[in-house]
Design brief:
Strand content of chain A: 15-25%
Oligomer: heterodimer
Helix content of chain B: 55-70%
Number of strands of chain A: 10
Shape of chain B: elongated
Structural class of chain B: alpha+beta
Distance between the termini of chain A: 33 Å
Strand content of chain B: 15-25%
Strand order of the largest sheet of chain A: 6-7-8-3-9-10
Order of helices and strands of chain A: EEEHEEHEHHHHEHEHEE
Largest sheet of chain A: 6 strands, mixed
CATH architecture of chain A: 3-Layer(aba) Sandwich
Helix content of chain A: 25-40%
Number of domains of chain A: 1
Shape of chain A: globular
Number of domains of chain B: 2
Chain lengths: 269, 413
């Protein structure tokens, strides 16, 4: 059974002049545990809206969204919040670390919304998570004193600290240079794989997209599957079965994978 | 249940962290609240202390509620055996009714020898419980102790002006005064009581009724005794009933030939439970409330601006599982935590203000030795409660704004 399943989802918003603006058209998507999926699209193609829906922050106008077999649109706001807190981790382009809070406090934050053992042992859990992303020595550092790559690693630690089953990465390397971006992605791939979570990356960088097992393209609210695999990443199986993806994509050891790939049409995006 | 506790602890620590991270802003907004709470608490404390002072002064003159005042005058010429019969009947009644606080109260005057010549001293003849029944405050030394009536040299508690006329002697040296009016008895001054003094006031002193009777000439004893008021401090709820019963039993015990009256200070005349400071209290409460409202408006203002700035942060928290309820509670608790701290500071400042001698002197009339009146707990509690309510109300508007944040929009732009 798939972890996340969108069936003919549409989303439309009502504009102030009472016209209806459709944003997503008939989107169907299935993501299984351990799978890495990328979605590329230009600005204005509906990526945010899709992210909202995938992250259980918004309900589709029509169509259904199942998370772990549960019909999310039937859940109350409160249960959706809880489901999201327990199962979804976000990594943002602008990191979105909380200002004035140390790295540790930032990673603690999602645990504040947990309960039981996870809540009462939160400091130890958060410390271990930061150690895993190689920031065990920067626990008390404020975001302002961390480099971009370190900030994104804190953000990854924060996204993964509750061991979510789905990671949503929204342009995770958009604010990083190429090399840092690649090392951050490698780290995220590794941890996501170790934890067996599904990773959905929204990006317009084809090199980042190439790290995924399956590729989608969002254009004017229409989601299409792309079977084309970048040449340089061809050694990775184009349609790897769920959960079998290599921990470290052999084709991209240090970010050399097709930064400009002539065969991928989305490279222009 | 577990989740509930985690939620509460989490929300509180969120709020505390928020206050710590934004301490500059929080501090600014809270100066206003602290000042407002100080003003409210001080005005409440003023009203409280003023009320207490007025009530105490009133009770000094008329006795605490309820004080029953028994008089029994013989219809013919007073004789010493009248006094004996009356007092034995009175003692009987008190024993039967379990009255623990009672005093005789009468006046006499006696000539006493001061260093600059003899003078008449106005004596008030009382019993030991008098000080408690009338809120008598001692400036120096002590009030009569039980058993003092058996002293060979009768004890005397003198007024402030008499103490000064005696040259303010050290009471530890047991100063004495000789009274030609009381058969040249040597009286020991054991204490000085507080009370109003005025220009040209005669020296005054209080002496135990029993001591006076031991040393005074019989005619003076009779004169004083015939004007005696027998006062009993009884529970308020049974005062009326008890008054009637005492009147009946005394009249019955004395038989004809006596006019027995029991006056209840809680009915007719001045009723100490009628609060004469109510206007002052309402006025100060009103002013305090206005100041507090201004402080709250400042707080709301800053809180709304800061929530608009923190939209991104709220979006991040929401995306990591914070429910709208939790965000609402956190933003509101932040305001409450901060105002409770500010309220505490405000109350502390108020307490310090009320300890300034020039301030509490207004109530004590500048009397030496009495010190600052105790800070009314009610005023402190009111201040803290007001601060908490203001915090909750001021947190409400930004908290509602916080719950309306569109998460992804907040995060992406």
């Amino acid at each position: 059974m798939s972890l996340l399943h969108l069936e003919r989802v549409t989303r439309a918003v009502r504009l102030p002049d009472d016209t209806i603006l459709p944003i997503l058209h008939d989107v169907s998507l299935s993501v299984s545990s351990g799978e890495r999926v990328s979605i590329v699209g230009r600005s204005g193609s509906g990526k945010s809206t899709l992210l909202n829906i995938l992250g259980l922050l918004d309900n589709p106008t029509t169509g259904t969204l199942h998370f772990d077999g549960q019909d999310v649109s039937r859940l109350s706001q409160r249960r959706r919040d809880r489901l999201r807190g327990n199962n979804v981790g976000f990594v943002f382009q602008q990191f979105n670390l909380l200002e004035g809070r140390t790295a540790l406090e930032n990673v603690l934050m999602p645990l504040m919304y947990s309960h039981g053992r996870e809540f009462w042992r939160r400091t130890r859990i958060a410390t271990e998570m930061l150690e895993r992303v190689g920031l065990g020595h920067r626990l008390a550092s404020l975001p302002g004193s961390l480099s971009g790559g370190e900030q994104q690693r804190v953000a990854i630690a924060r996204a993964l600290v509750r061991r979510p089953r789905l990671i949503l990465a929204d342009e995770p390397t958009g604010a990083l240079d190429l090399e840092t971006g690649n090392s951050v992605m490698a780290l995220m791939d590794e941890i996501v794989h170790e934890d067996g979570a599904a990773l959905v990356t929204i990006t317009h960088d084809s090199a980042i997209a190439a790290r995924s097992d399956r590729h989608f393209r969002l254009d004017h609210g229409v989601l299409t599957s792309e079977t084309l695999v970048p040449v340089a990443a061809a050694s990775a199986l184009p349609a790897a079965p769920a959960g079998t993806a290599a921990p470290l994509n052999p084709a991209t050891p240090a970010g050399t994978a097709a930064p400009l790939n002539p065969t991928t049409p989305e490279a222009t995006a | 249940m577990n989740g509930f506790f985690a939620g509460i602890v989490g929300a509180f620590s969120d709020a505390a962290q928020e206050v710590r991270v934004h301490r500059g802003r929080v501090l600014l907004s809270l100066v206003g609240v602290a000042a407002a709470v100080t003003a409210l608490t001080v005005s409440m404390a003023f009203a409280d202390i003023a009320e207490r002072t007025v009530v105490e002064q009133m009770e000094t003159y008329t006795g605490r509620p309820t004080t029953l005042d028994l008089t029994a005058s013989p219809t013919d010429e007073p004789r010493i055996d009248h006094v004996e019969r009356l007092e034995s009947a009175w003692f009987d009644v008190m024993k039967r009714s379990d009255i623990t606080h009672a005093t005789r109260d009468s006046n006499a005057s006696a000539r006493m020898r001061f260093s600059d010549g003899a003078q008449d001293v106005q004596l008030q003849l009382v019993d030991q419980p008098y000080a408690v029944m009338r809120h008598l405050r001692m400036l120096e030394g002590t009030w009569f102790a039980p058993g003092d009536s058996e002293r060979l040299a009768p004890a005397l508690v003198v007024s402030r002006n008499m103490y000064e006329m005696l040259g303010s002697p050290d009471l530890r040296t047991h100063p004495t005064i000789v009274s030609p009016g009381l058969g040249n008895a040597r009286l020991v001054i054991i204490g000085v009581y507080d009370g109003p003094i005025y220009e040209g006031m005669p020296p005054e002193a209080k002496i135990l009724t029993a001591s006076f009777r031991q040393v005074a000439p019989e005619k003076d004893v009779l004169t004083a005794a015939s004007g005696t008021r027998y006062q009993m401090w009884v529970p308020q709820d049974i005062g009326d009933e008890l008054g009637k019963r005492i009147k009946q039993s005394i009249a019955g015990a004395l038989g004809d030939g006596f006019l027995v009256e029991v006056y209840n200070n809680n009915q007719g005349g001045m009723d100490p439970s009628q609060d004469p400071t109510v206007i002052f209290r309402l006025l100060s409460l009103g002013i305090g409330a206005i100041i507090l409202t201004l402080g709250a408006l400042g707080l709301v203002n800053i809180a709304i601006v800061s929530v608009r700035q923190r939209v991104r942060e709220i979006g991040v928290r929401r995306s990591f599982g914070a429910s709208t309820g939790r965000v609402f509670f956190s933003v509101m608790m932040e305001s409450v935590v901060a105002t409770v701290v500010a309220g505490f500071v405000g109350v502390m400042i108020a307490i310090l203000i009320m300890r300034i001698p020039a301030v509490y002197g207004i109530f004590t009339g500048g009397a030496v030795g009495t010190g600052a009146p105790a800070f009314p707990v009610g005023a402190a509690v009111t201040g803290m409660v007001a601060a908490t309510i203001v915090g909750a109300l001021a947190g409400l508007i930004p908290a509602i704004i916080a719950t309306r944040v569109k998460v992804i929009d907040a995060l992406r732009y």
